[in-house]
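Appendix B, Record 12. Input sequence as logged:
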Amino acid sequence: MRVLHVITGLGVGGAEQQLRLLLRHLPARCDVVTLTNPGPVAAGLAADGVRVAHLGMGGNRDLEALPRLTRLIRGGGYDLVHTHLYRACLYGRLAARLAGVRAVVATEHSIGATRLEGRPHSAGVRALYLAGERLGQVTVAVSPTVAHRLRRWGVPGQRIRIIPNGIDAPRFRYDEVRRKEARAYYGLPEDAYVVGGVGRLAPGKRFGLLVAALAQLPDDVRLLLVGGGPEEAALRRAARELGVEDRLVLTGERPCLPDPHDGAPDLPGLLCAMDVLASPSPEESFGLAVLEALAAGLPVLYASCPAVEDLPARAVPGARRVTGGAGTYARELLRLRAAGPGERCAPDVVRHYDIARTARQLMDLYTAASAGSNLEASSS
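Logged structural output:
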């Protein structure tokens, strides 16, 4: 089976890295086209042997991109088109239809309670989303929470399949050597208590709250933020104003899968360097960073994480939901520190999110879609 994945961009983000990891496990022959920004994940995919095309789209209203994408799909002889992220879902579904491909699957990665990929849930955004959704065959929700939001928007339940994101859990297994190497690389003392955060440095992630909490914590506590984005300068400025600039480390974007040409620690190594992960974002569609931290054996404080919240109560004892501001997070971090380090072992529930399992479920969906099967909603 020949499959084309269409995605808005290939910078270092959750959906983008999930796509790269997924393609390492899917038995289908997959190519990728990115509408914009052929960033580090594009280079990683090419290194994996995946053919990546850049459409060179100039913006949301660059309608000339549509015939280019249509020609690319038609010329590739694809059996199925799989779209990811809002803009790619709109253009990709329509282009697939124009190219004569009827098996069209989309994954909804990023619909929050009030925002979609940073856009407020306006009537216009919702109407355009639903118009595009009807051009596809099925929409994959990465969590039951996302499936519920899609149904509330008006997507028929029979067109939704729940297939969670997956991780390669053994890659995140705690390693003392990697901990020391990552700390040495970023100048973190071996005896420091390191609070970590992973994600795009954007307002919705609320990393400024962690900077404010850092100012309320002892001097040997460090804050290690992994990610890049528009809030970087504001975070540095806030740290300087609060007198904690020397206790904040910003790594920039770091891939989950290693870059052989880059000597800096990758994401699993940075998680080894942490003592706790804090995720104060109030709106998540899945919570991949939380799950990866759990796989690294870290305790986690989170504000929103469907990957945890959709599981049975007390299934993940290492994860604690925290609502409130900087003072609340500071108190919870002090509580965890006083409890002392536990064993860095992944909880059993991490196996529920194995990437190989995700790939098998998705391949079953591809087979059904290609055969024109009536697709039943599923919570598997």
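Residues 166 and 354 are 5 Å apart (CA to CA).
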